[in-house]
Design goal:
Elements (H helix, E strand, L loop, with lengths): L1 H8 L5 H8 L3 H8 L5 H4 L8 H16 L6 H15 L9 H8 L13 H6 L2 H17 L7 E10 L33 E9 L8 E5 L16 E5 L6 H15 L8 E5 L8 H9 L2 E5 L5 H4 L1 H24 L7 H6 L1
Length: about 350
């Protein structure tokens, strides 16, 4: 519209040609040239809040969002009513006021709020992240560590018998003739947990994962006839502990990532107590392994395995578990099934 009006006003086009060129009705261009306003400007006096008040409201929304406290639609509406009240304007807002407000202020929009613990939000600041990366670069350059010798390890828990909600196909209406939005799926009753310890490198290499089952000792019957080439361990809690962490370091990580000569390695991990024990740290120092824990409460933004690896692995496992439940009538999921999947 602005280009069409400018072309007519500077004489480079007639109104008819501008209408054809820019695909705008001729009467609209002519009206705009003679002072007609855009619809949202012409009806500005009918709005519940003035232009300045709406701009202030938009700034308030963006400010709260920048502090990780985004307001709900109800709170935005309540704030608009409060602005009206303090301005002496009759307190009233239409049902679709918020949607119209967002159309007029595209810098704001509706989002899905992803809850995070307050301590994680407070710790994962730009300053803390930059400080840690400077610390990492200093050690990498000081010891001349190559990318293939920079490793990241992490542990992830998985419930071996629980599938996630998913889209399925079923009857459109229930027995009372009402439209249905959800339906029930039979699921295994197994709620046993298994832990997976993974390790990858910046040189795009990986080592054998460690699978920790719930139990006292590893039972040969837990593995399928053709078991995957993983390492297996057992613990009553199904989580890693000091003993298992040290065994992983000596029996899996150290021999499978050993560089030639006396080159240094960097091992990145979160600040779990099992990785910070004196014995674990002493062994790393003896093997020229530089341990660099990630800052506290920042694994959700800095832990590579959390961000890249574990989510796809978990999703793929749940998909295969769903297929298994369809075949075995949702029988209990066993450790052997987990290894097979």
């Amino acid at each position: 519209m602005a280009l069409a009006v400018a072309a007519v006003r500077d004489g480079s086009m007639k109104c008819r040609k501008a209408a054809f060129t820019y695909g705008i009705p001729r009467n609209t261009i002519a009206g705009r040239i003679h002072g007609a306003q855009e619809r949202h400007e012409a009806h500005a006096h009918e709005r519940r809040l003035t232009k300045t008040q709406e701009e202030d409201l938009a700034k308030w929304i963006i400010d709260l969002d920048s502090r990780h406290q985004p307001p709900s639609s109800q709170r935005c509406r309540a704030m608009a009513l409060e602005i009206q009240k303090q301005s002496g304007i009759p307190v009233s807002l239409g049902r679709d006021w918020l949607y119209q407000f967002l159309e007029r202020h595209p810098q704001c929009t509706t989002l899905v709020g992803n809850p995070h613990e307050a301590i994680r939000v407070n710790e994962a600041t730009e300053h803390n992240v930059r400080t840690w990366f400077d610390f990492f670069v200093t050690h990498r350059d000081k010891y001349q560590v190559e990318d293939v010798n920079i490793h990241n390890m992490d542990e992830h828990g998985l419930c071996i018998g629980k599938i996630n909600p998913r889209k399925v196909v079923g009857a459109a209406k229930d027995q009372w003739g009402q439209l249905r939005k959800r339906t029930k799926m039979r699921n295994s009753q197994t709620r046993e947990w298994v832990s997976i310890v993974e390790c990858i490198s910046a040189g795009q290499t990986s080592i054998q994962p460690l699978i920790i089952f719930k139990g006292v000792n590893v039972n040969i019957n837990w593995a399928p006839d053709d078991p995957p080439p993983y390492k297996y361990a057992a613990d009553p809690s199904a989580w890693i502990n000091d003993k298992l962490a040290l065994a992983w370091l000596n029996e899996i990580f150290e021999p499978q990532t050993r560089p030639r000569g006396s080159q240094y390695r960097i091992l990145l991990f979160d600040q779990h107590t099992t990785h910070l024990s004196n014995e674990f740290q002493a062994t790393c120092k003896k093997k020229n392994i530089i341990t660099l824990p990630l800052p506290s409460h920042t694994s959700d933004v800095l832990q590579p395995l959390d961000l890249v690896m574990f989510s796809p692995i978990k999703g793929s496992y749940k998909d295969r578990l769903y297929e298994l439940c369809q075949l075995n009538d949702s029988d209990d999921t066993k450790k052997k099934d987990f290894c097979h999947l």
